[in-house]
Amino acid sequence: xxxxxxxxxxxxxxxxxxxxxxxxxxxxxxxxxxxxxxxxxxxxxxxxxxxxxxxxxxxxxxxxxxxxxxxxxxxxxxxxxxxxxxxxxxxxxxxxxxxxxxxxxxxxxxxxxxxxxxxxxxxxxxxxxxxxxxxxxxxxxxxxxxxxxxxxxxxxxxxxxxxxxxxxxxxxxxxxxxxxxxxxxxxxxxxxxxxxxxxxxxxxxxxxxxxxxxxxxxxxxxxxxxxxxxxxxxxxxxxxxxxxxxxxxxxxxxxxxxxxxxxxxxxxxxxxxxxxxxxxxxxxxxxx
Length: 288
Fold this sequence. Notes:
This protein is an alpha/beta fold. The protein has 2 domains: 2-56, no CATH class; 65-272, Rossmann fold, CATH 3.40.50. Helices cover 38% and strands 18% of the residues. It has helices at residues 2-23, 39-44, 46-49, 55-64, 76-86, 119-130, 148-152, 165-178, 206-209, 222-225, 231-248; strands at 26-28, 32-34, 66-70, 90-94, 135-139, 157-160, 182-188, 191-197, 257-262, 267-272. The strands form 2 sheets. It has an 8-stranded mixed sheet, sandwiched between helices. A two-stranded antiparallel ribbon has the order 1-2. Helix 5 runs parallel beside helix 6 and helix 5 (76-86) runs parallel beside helix 11 (231-248). The longest helix is centred in the N-terminal third of the chain and has 22 residues, at 2-23. The radius of gyration is 20 Å and the shape is globular.
């Protein structure tokens, strides 16, 4: 099977090479000059490249992308691993926590021997094992209103997997101010939700849907309410998939849509989200 895969990879390389010779360079949708994929990249990402919706141009977009992931915990674990495997050029990680034993039931990017270590260091090692060609930029800090915009700036996509409303609101305001799409996920007990907020392109922002944080105790954290271990794997992997689609411009994404998984009852539903004309964040310009 390995030989067959290599042969297929060479055929892909030949096809892309022919296109390169015909056009003088590879381009993405007739607009972006792109560097040809190397033979190693063609083999590593062969199963992406044969997908009509991704192909060589889509894989090149992934390789040029800079993605910032907020949180290297339950959601961040599968997001980081699958984006690394997909060949994202640079992954930024923001997390000020250390690995604890209670994390390991769901935060699969970390191991038992890494308990007590900073999560960004543990995550960076795991990413390097999956794909050593992916750049990693670690931020061992907590986002706040002073530093958020500077950290978010320069990324093509921000993925929020944090576990508190205050940080989500800060991340949202920074993304709106920088005009960067925000892919947001949340989990609790048996249920998870995902949305892509992109007000710069006509969609709502997070504050349009959640204008105020809930009252203390109304939405308890996972430490109090619990969470089934496989749930962040399901939601986080779906977030990684949506990120790949968004960057590669493949298929229909979650722009202005909230996808909700109720895993206890094996149900899934979609809710259409609309901008709020009076939103103080995206309606009148964000300031962080």
